[in-house]
UniProtKB/TrEMBL annotation:
Keywords: Pentose shunt, Schiff base, Transferase. This is Transaldolase. Belongs to the transaldolase family. Type 1 subfamily. The keyword Cell wall biogenesis/degradation does not apply. Catalyzes the rate-limiting step of the non-oxidative phase in the pentose phosphate pathway. Catalyzes the reversible conversion of sedheptulose-7-phosphate and D-glyceraldehyde 3-phosphate into erythrose-4-phosphate and beta-D-fructose 6-phosphate. It is an enzyme of class 2 (transferase). Its EC number is 2.2.1.2.
């Protein structure tokens, strides 16, 4: 967890975390074996080469994109993110049954009607997973608002306040939680209210466009999660080009532009690249504030010793040729409307998260009846 003079850098309230990972997580100690026979004898053991993951941790804060506790123990990320799809997957594993049981007991007690009990149990389940994750990571966990509230600012604020209250009842301070909201206009405005009026910091997800990124920065949100891989998916499916070199990958290009814009104009919102399809995309964004990576790709990076170079640099960003943009609601909606990829992927992402949320509720409803 990081130190910084700004109040918005991946922290909630006045807790602060550094954009560079702590050395205890990112360093790779190498030792040389001294010869015990003769100073003239050559060394027989070579210095161990740092893995690509260890090298990447020197440039970027690594976040685990999973609800699987075992993966966090293995790869030792600084932070972790969750969403309805990840929680649904984890909830089906036997080792997490005790969390389901606790959530069901809470729902039975807190709700009156069946649907109230389901809603209460679902909220508690997200928080319980978050609490367990925080036992494994030194930083923060992101907990997502119901995707069905993506176009309702007031309801999103109310749900966020409820989730934070549940965390605090369980002894977790809000400085260890980020509230995830979809990067709709309403979601961004909800985040602005939470940040400015309630000292609750937010992670704006399902972000695919420059317009969304600018709106988030102007709203003063803590962090954004641009979806690299899903941008690539759209271009592969909808254009003639089916393969891209990492630096020309449209998702990488998008995140690079956003990062440079933020650093050039001094915005405090930090960038966490997300939704990666391959290691090449990750390596091409080395130097980004944070990268949230799936266990599979963390494993690939751990096994690799390919050298990692810095591609994103805050100092160099200041000389990039970019014009400042002001983003009001009309401009936001028009720019998003004109960007077919972003419009398609935002609506698709909301639908998919909402569908997994409903599946989770169906599971809980069956246990509550």
């Amino acid at each position: 967890p990081l130190t910084s003079t700004n109040k918005l850098v991946y922290a909630i309230t006045h807790a602060r975390v550094s954009l560079q990972p702590p050395s205890i997580l990112g360093s790779s100690e190498t030792t040389e074996r001294q010869s015990t026979m003769s100073s003239a004898e050559p060394q027989t053991k070579k210095t161990k080469m740092a893995s690509s993951l260890e090298q990447l941790k020197q440039l970027t804060t690594i976040v685990a994109d999973t609800g699987d506790f075992e993966a966090m123990k293995t790869y030792k990320p600084t932070d972790a993110t969750t969403n309805p799809s990840l929680i649904l997957s984890a909830a089906g594993m036997e080792q997490y049954q005790h969390l389901i049981d606790k959530a069901i007991k809470h729902g039975q007690k807190a709700g009156t009607t069946l649907e109230e009990k389901v809603s209460e149990a679902a909220d508690m389940l997200f928080v319980l997973f978050g609490c367990e994750i925080l036992k494994l990571v030194p930083g923060r966990v992101s907990t997502e608002i119901d995707a069905r509230l993506s176009f309702n600012k007031d309801a999103s604020v109310a749900k966020a306040l409820k989730l934070i209250a549940l965390y605090e009842e369980l002894g977790v301070k809000r400085d260890r939680v980020l509230i995830k909201l979809a990067s709709t206009w309403e979601g961004i405005q909800a985040a602005s209210v939470l940040e400015k009026e309630h000292n609750i910091h937010c992670n704006l997800t399902l972000l695919f466009s420059f317009a969304q990124a600018v709106a988030c920065a102007e709203a003063g949100v803590t962090l954004i999660s641009p979806f690299v891989g899903r941008i690539l998916d759209w271009y592969v499916a909808n254009t003639e080009q089916k393969t891209f070199e990492p630096e020309q990958d449209p998702g990488v290009v998008s995140v690079t532009k956003i990062y440079n814009y933020y650093k050039k104009f001094g915005y405090k919102t930090v960038v966490m690249g997300a939704s990666f399809r391959n290691v090449g995309e990750i390596m091409a964004l080395a130097g980004c504030d944070l990268l949230t990576i799936s266990p599979k790709l963390l494993g690939d990076l751990e096994k690799s010793t390919e050298p990692v170079k810095r591609y994103l640099d805050a100092d160099k960003a200041k000389s990039v040729a970019l014009e400042k943009v002001h983003m009001d609601e009309a401009t936001f909606r028009w720019m998003l409307n004109e960007d077919q990829m972003s419009t398609d992927k935002l609506s698709d992402g909301i639908r998919k998260f909402a569908a997994d949320g409903r599946k989770l509720e169906t599971m809980l409803r069956g246990l509550l009846q």
